[in-house]
Design a protein that fits this description.
It contains seven helices and three strands. By secondary structure, it is mainly alpha-helical. The protein has a three-stranded mixed beta sheet with strand order 2-1-3. Helix 2 crosses helix 3, helix 4 crosses helix 6 and helix 6 packs antiparallel against helix 7. 22% of the residues are buried.
Amino acid sequence: MALNPAGQARAEALQSIKHTDCVLLCPHGTRLNVYKGMLASHSKVFAEMFEALGSTCEMKLQDDAAAIGTVLSSLNYDSKLQELTDPDKVAAVLQIAHKYDMPRPSKAGSDRLAGDLRSKVLAPTGAVR
């Protein structure tokens, strides 16, 4: 999906390391640079963890980096979860969203799976296959 110039500038700013204030350390050495305020505003769990950490912010997580990355991207771009085609990946994202109490990606992931289920169960006429 192509972004307009303003959207492109926002995407680049959000991905820039120099503007982030926290690092999530995932397995296999993956480092995800994040904004504490934004993440805390979407997750009560992260808000509480940041409160406990104080000004230091390097947090070790045991979760799949790709799933966390998708959840974090979905906070800015709702379409990220809609782009997933593998139900296992959607399930992994849902697991992360529930674990960290993130209602927005949780609802988007649930809606994505529900849409897949409807399309597989219902024929074009609405009859059950």
